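Appendix B, record 7
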Amino acid sequence: MRILQQHVDFIEYLPIEKEIEAEEKIEKKQVKLEDIVVLFTAVEEGDTESLAKNVIDQIKESLKVLKVNKILIYPYAHLSSNLAKPSEALSIIKKMEEFSRKAGLEVYRAPFGWNKQFHLKIKAHPLAEQLKVFKAEEAKEEEVSQSLKQEEKVKSEWYILTPEGKLVDATKFDYKGHENLKKFFDYEYAKVRAVSIVPPHVKLMKALELVDYEPGSDPGNFRFLPKGRLMKSLMEQWITQKVIKYGAMEVETPIMYDYEHPALKEYLNRFPARQYILESAKKKYFLRFAACFGQFLTMAASNISYKDLPMKVFELTRYSFRLEKAGELVGLRRLRAFSMPDMHTLCRDLESAKQEFYNQFKLGIETLKDLDLSINDFEVAIRFTQEFWRENKDFVISLVKLVNKPVLIEMWNFRYAYFDPKFEFNFIDSMDKASALTTVQIDHENAKRFGIEYVDEDGKKKNPYILHCSPSGSLERCFYAMLEKAHMLSQKGENPRLPLWLSPTQIRLCPINQDYISYCEELAKNFEQHKIRVDIDDRSERIEKKVRDAEMEWIPYVLVIGRREKESGEFNVRKRESKSIEKKMTFEEIVNEINELTRDKPFKDLTLPKKLSKRPIFIG
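Structure tokens (predicted):
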């Protein structure tokens, strides 16, 4: 920002004609001000609200020397060739006016976007005329939504609500038998998100060659290796099928949006997240942090009848982006680019929205069960305002009864964002950190903000309530939860494992020597015909090493193949789920068992060479 500061006996100015489209609506009249400091101001690219405050703070100090308390902020583009966009410049100038008033200054502001005629008389002292250049600490400050700022001000009260409907102060609840709930409350109450040590899932995702860091990208962005990509692809197919079966319609929308779009910009300030900002041809864009933007714009352009409600729209974002604080980034638990299953449901009224909220609570339980995450593997948080609790106690208690265990309640003194209520299913890891998986919110604002309407029975257009639902949470965080649970199983002396339908290799054939490789190839083809992923350890290694390596890779079924197996058609099967205890099974028994355990789950072929000798090492 550049300011030509002039201490004058008087200044007179008269708006003549509009100069740009972003001009202010004013009355054309001459203004005269006496004994005042005029701030001829050019707002430049990269100038921020915090810079505007810093400028006024410094100006106020200089006014003490001049012994004057009156200023005129006069937009003056001629001081710079690196001007901010008109809309941004006007916003900054208005902020300067606001900060000046709060600082106790008598402040006037000349109109923006007008050619003006003016003349003035400068006072005759050495400090009467000064050119000042102000720069932000950085070219662009972090964009923080108004909702995040409000979140810092909201007062939360914490309780534990039991299935019997008893509401207990969270600091006084007896957590015996509910140790994870205590860890969850401590984590939420402290609000410490930073981590100091590498969590177990990071080591596991590398050891299993699923996911790795990408040093060529921004922190919090990852590369998915063939095994990990296969798993993620299966999860994408699974969650999409699940929500379509639930009644959602799938769409696809852009990943970046115009920062100046009125509805989008207003929504940004009501969403508690930090955004990636980018520029193209001097226009400002943001990368989406959810599918809300595209889905809301799609709904706003649609003709919707009350007969269509509840109406569900779904997108699996690849990707969503949130500019999380660097100190809070950790593996797949908290990252900056992620794949988010995102469903929005339009509801006719609050009662309908509550019914959908209840149904989607049940959907979340069913969804996590597919990832081998039971009700005992997560803790529930339900968050709402004091007003919502007073009017909907029985409804909230009905949710708690679905999990039949105490849940954490956060009660706000006011609604700081667009939602009330919301719930999450939170996984508590071995480091006592909590991460939200399933989440649903009831949105009170965005239908009106985006112009989403439905035609009611009476023929009138009305704004619906909107439910935001991610049945599983981000897919990356699902990886995190499954790996962390596996680690905790190993701490209890059990075999760590993945869900069978997600295991990249479901059966490994280990021939005792090279003579049985061709039989293994024939056997593998037969298994594959039944939609089972199979590979062959054809390496010239001792059979003990082959079996040990299969266990290190968490292979669910390991078959050692030799003369006896070939002749009898019976196999000694080492099943990971049963602590690798061997069991005799026929081909048909193996097929039937795996097909039953993976019933209704998607299937994809193995995306690696079938023979281990042909595989590269991705992390070594």
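Remarks on this record: The first strand starts at residue 2 and ends at 18. The chain has 17 helices and 28 strands.
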